[in-house]
């Protein structure tokens, strides 16, 4: 087919820039977003402590994770919360499913709407709607990996404005196209954000993001040059594995200004990056052989992964979780939906090329 010229591409990128400038201010949350959510969190926390869901008067803290805490949240997002025992050394005697059922009962008694208890899930969880605000909420009972990956995503979001810009546009696009629903066999918001991070680490030249996990291994530490390798801790749900939860946190190490300066050496606009993003995941990724892996800032060969049974060499998108390196975040993409996401990347990429060739607004990509 006819390939648009560089000048024509420039036209489409600028049109996408304009579209982003139009839609992003509507997508970014207001000050009130965090205030309202904090009020709900506090109220639910008090309700669960009053009902003594951990037993024997043990107090709990509810911690927010997911898009209400990772800087990728828009107004309509659900509020994801997780139970953490207030005294960390004092582990509850109750099992997660038991706590989950007690959370469900406490919320039901307090008037929560549409309470659904999923106590047999890998991470037991209660879904409900907050009666006062109508906000969709969930409380999971033991979810340390999600708390940690929320911190990781948040650290990436702070490095460059284009990280959030891209993630908001891609999340919105995925919702509009109906491909953001893991329970229906399409990809989670978390999966799309990992795709954005891996893209910003590997495709733009120079790269906009480093791997914060890799940087943690390499970062010079003058106080302790012989620093031991970061600690591995037992996997919270799987005694046969361990996980490494450390990453280079620019806020704690004072390196944020440096990382921003490095990111800023790349001058590509949001519109150009979006066009490259769709083209990359539509045509350039070798899905059969490679795993998208923001832990490493390079793609990993499926064939080299230790747990080969988790990484079959089929043409499906595979995304390594940054902490659970055996876990494919895209495993939810199952027949017959497994090709849908890839087809949508192709559709968006073609629309942008057509818009470039015909000099029309690529509005169909961002038609909201
Ligand atoms: P929206 O709610 O769509 O705005 O995005 P979100 O980031 O909150 O996504 P979602 O509600 O689907 O998931 C909430 C959080 O759960 C994510 O941000 C992650 O922290 C965590 N999470 C979701 N899926 C996975 C997964 O497959 N593996 C792990 N380890 N964590 C996940
Ligand atoms: Mg969420």
From TrEMBL:
Query: Which residues does the UniProt record annotate as the domain PAP-associated?
Result: 269-326
Portion of the parent chain present:
596 to 963 of 975
Q: What is this protein called?
A: PAP-associated domain-containing protein
Spell out the subcellular localization from the entry. Cytoplasm
Highest taxon listed in the record's lineage: Eukaryota
Q: Per the database record, which ranges form the Poly(A) RNA polymerase mitochondrial-like central palm domain?
A: 22-157
What lineage is this protein's organism placed in? Answer: Eukaryota, Sar, Stramenopiles, Ochrophyta, Pelagophyceae
């Amino acid at each position: 087919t006819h390939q648009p010229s560089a000048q024509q591409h420039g036209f489409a990128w600028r049109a996408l820039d304009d579209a982003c400038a139009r839609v992003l201010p509507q997508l970014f949350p207001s000050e009130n977003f965090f205030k309202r959510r904090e009020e709900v969190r506090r109220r639910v926390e008090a309700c669960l402590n009053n009902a003594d869901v951990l037993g024997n008067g043990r107090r709990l803290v509810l911690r927010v994770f997911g898009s209400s805490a990772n800087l990728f949240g828009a107004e309509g997002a659900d509020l994801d919360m997780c139970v953490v025992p207030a005294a960390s050394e004092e582990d509850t005697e109750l099992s997660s499913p038991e706590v989950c059922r007690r959370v469900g009962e406490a919320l039901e008694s307090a008037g929560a709407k549409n309470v659904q208890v999923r106590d047999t899930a890998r991470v037991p969880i209660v879904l409900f709607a907050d009666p006062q605000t109508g906000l969709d909420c969930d409380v999971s009972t033991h979810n340390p990996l999600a708390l940690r990956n929320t911190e990781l995503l948040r650290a990436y979001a702070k490095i460059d404005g284009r990280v959030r810009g891209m993630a908001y546009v891609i999340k919105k696009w995925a919702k509009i196209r109906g491909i953001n629903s893991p329970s229906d066999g399409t990809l989670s918001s978390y999966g799309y954000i990992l795709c954005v991070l891996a893209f910003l680490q590997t495709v733009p030249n120079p790269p906009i993001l480093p791997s914060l996990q890799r940087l943690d291994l390499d970062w010079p530490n003058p106080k302790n040059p012989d620093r031991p390798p970061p600690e591995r801790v037992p996997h919270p749900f799987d005694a046969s594995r361990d996980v490494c939860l450390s990453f280079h946190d620019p806020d704690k190490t004072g390196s944020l200004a440096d990382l921003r300066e490095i990111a800023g050496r790349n001058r590509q606009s949001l519109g150009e990056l979006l066009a490259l993003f769709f083209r990359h995941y539509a045509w350039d990724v070798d899905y059969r052989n490679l795993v998208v892996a923001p832990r490493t800032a390079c793609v990993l060969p499926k064939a080299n992964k230790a747990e080969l049974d988790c990484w079959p060499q089929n043409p499906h998108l595979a995304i390594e979780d940054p902490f659970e390196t055996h876990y494919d975040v895209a495993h939810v993409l199952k027949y017959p939906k497994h090709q849908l996401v890839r087809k949508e990347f192709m559709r968006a990429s073609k629309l942008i090329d057509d818009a470039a060739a015909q000099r029309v607004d690529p509005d169909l990509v961002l038609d909201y």
